[in-house]
Amino acid sequence: MRVAMIGSGYVGLVSGACFADFGHIVTCIDKDSGKIERLKAGIMPIFEPGLDGLVESNTSEGRLFFDTEAAAAVKSADTVFIAVGTPSRRGDGHADLSFVYAVAEEIADLIEGFTVIVTKSTVPVGTGDEIERIIRTRRPDADFAVVSNPEFLREGAAINDFKRPDRVVVGTDDERAREVMRQLYRPLNLNETPLVFTDRRTSELIKYAANAFLALKITFINEMADLCEAVGADVQHVSRGIGLDGRIGAKFLHAGPGYGGSCFPKDTLALVRTARDAGAPVTLVETTVKVNDTRKKAMAGRVVDALDGDVRGKTIAVLGLAFKPNTDDMRDAPALDIIPALQAMGAKIQAFDPEAMHEAQKLLTGIDFKTGPYEALDGADAMVLITEWDRFRALDLDRVKALLRTPVVVDLRNVYSPDQVRAAGLRYTSIGRA
User: Fold this and answer.
1) Residue 226, exposed/middle/buried by CB under 10 A (0-12, 13-18, 19+)?
2) Residues marked as catalytic
3) Cα(38)–Cα(44) distance, integer angstroms
4) Which CATH architecture is the domain 297-429 placed in?
5) Which pairs from 181-190 meet CB under 8 Å and 24+ separation?
6) Contact 382/408 with Cβ under 8 angstroms?
7) Can you tell me the distance from the alpha carbon of 147 to that of 404, in angstroms, rounded to the nearest whole number?
8) Is 225 in contact with 255 (CB distance < 8 Å)?
9) Percent of the chain with pLDDT over 70
């Protein structure tokens, strides 16, 4: 099948490369000419494990193409995917759909023959209806169907998530479109992947509901971590004890400094706004948003407490800046709250992240960026671990102690065993453990 992927950001690029690897002919389109030229040269605009090799193999085998112009690819396409950004709108938290609707306007004039328009971007309920209205108004003669097909890709594991998904959700009432989508995802039949067909509005809501539930789960275990500290319990044992219950599950029960990234913050906020507008407020999700924002801001206090209540003139070594490992994404990362708060209290910061420092430099000022974890630790008064990269999981604790000016470790991801860290002569603070 021929696929036109409008938008070559995180979702569009990963999806396009994976569809090409399935054997489809895919053209990824983006207005950013610099990005397209870099992609043609094999230079990825994002860090995602395995993506560069996937793009290289499929471009060399003639299945994956990149272009700034949509006309040729859209005219010949069986499916046209809309995979542009839907950031939170300034002022009210609603999803900004201006890019989505601009794409709808553009492709309305280009489609030929029966074409399935697929919304891959995360969009509020009813967006597909508006896309259909826009195209129908501009092209009353066009033969098309608008389908919702939300993505469930985890940054750092996106290729595996696309090729071995828990499910594929498709929202449409058009039987021709259903058949096209079945053929598009037919390579997943080998894995017996559930293909969930529903109506378009329900499909749009499934995406938001899934992200909101996972965000709620993270926030719940973070609050349990605070309770564990207050009563002398261990949150990791609590997580295991409840996660083994099949009704609950172990995933997303890891206590930490709060969630961030490209999805959870904006999607929970958009769901809150949509629910309010519909007169059916989602109070649990509203509370989740507030608690998570408060938690990220409060994490700097953990560092201050570990340094006896004062960080003025002290140097803090921060390990990890991205919101999670295996990505360079800094959107709503806890580091963006923690570091400025420490700087405002007079601390100096020297930091290292394996992939995100180029993005961090755009968002944070006054930081001494280092070339490795031990370089960041050298001469610091405390080590603060914010992102649990594999590279940080087995640091030489004796070397850590020797490099630090004062032997203080603040582990916001519970990477280390308290007994092991203390045995190395380090003062250790973690999350939800006595």
Assistant:
1) middle
2) 263
3) 7
4) 3-Layer(aba) Sandwich (3.40)
5) 181/79, 181/116, 181/118, 181/147, 181/149, 183/1, 184/1, 184/3, 184/19, 184/24, 184/78, 184/79, 187/22, 187/23, 188/163
6) yes
7) 56
8) yes
9) 100
Decide if 134 contacts 104 (C-beta within 8 A). Answer: yes
The Cα 410–Cα 89 span in angstroms is 35
The residues spanned by each domain of the chain are 2-198, 208-289, 297-429
Same fold, 208-289 and 297-429: no
- Rg over alpha carbons for the chain, rounded to the nearest Å, is 23
Distance of CA 292 to the CA centre of its chain: 16
92: pLDDT strictly greater than 90? no
With beta carbons less than 8 A apart as the criterion, state whether 225 and 431 touch. Answer: yes
> What superfamily would CATH give domain 2-198?
NAD(P)-binding Rossmann-like Domain (3.40.50.720)
216 pLDDT above the threshold of 90 = yes
Contact 239, 250 (CB under 8 A): yes
In the block, tokens 């489809």 appear at 24
299: tokens are 């994490």
C-alpha distance from residue 419 to each of 293, 319, 391, 410, 429 (Å): 31, 21, 20, 14, 12
- Taking the C-alpha atoms of residue 242 and residue 226, their distance in angstroms, rounded to an integer, is 17
* Nearest CA among 414, 350, 363, 365 for reference residue 385: 414
Q: Which residue has the tokens 């709620």?
A: 216
Q: How many CB atoms lie within 10 A of CB 30?
A: 23
Show contacts of 124-128: CB within 8 Å, 24+ apart.
124/94, 124/95, 124/97, 124/204, 124/208, 124/270, 124/271, 124/274, 125/201, 125/204, 125/205, 125/208, 125/274, 126/201, 126/204, 127/97, 127/100, 127/204, 128/171, 128/200, 128/201, 128/204
- Cβ-count burial of 193 within 10 angstroms (0-12 exposed, 13-18 middle, 19+ buried)? middle
Provide the 3-class DSSP secondary structure of residue 283.
helix
Q: Give me the chain's average pLDDT, please.
A: 97
pLDDT band at residue 217 under the 50/70/90 scheme: very high
Query: Amino acid letter at 299?
Result: M
CA–CA separation, 258 and 220 (whole Å): 10
Alpha-carbon gap, residue 47 to 85, rounded angstroms: 17
- Domain spanning 208-289, CATH architecture: Orthogonal Bundle (1.10)
Query: How does pLDDT run across 255-276, given as a tens digit for each residue?
Result: 999 999 989 999 999 999 999 9
The token pair at 206 is 């499934």
In residues, how long is the chain? 434
Mean pLDDT value across residues 203-227: 98
User: How far does CA 57 lie from the centroid of its chain?
Assistant: 25
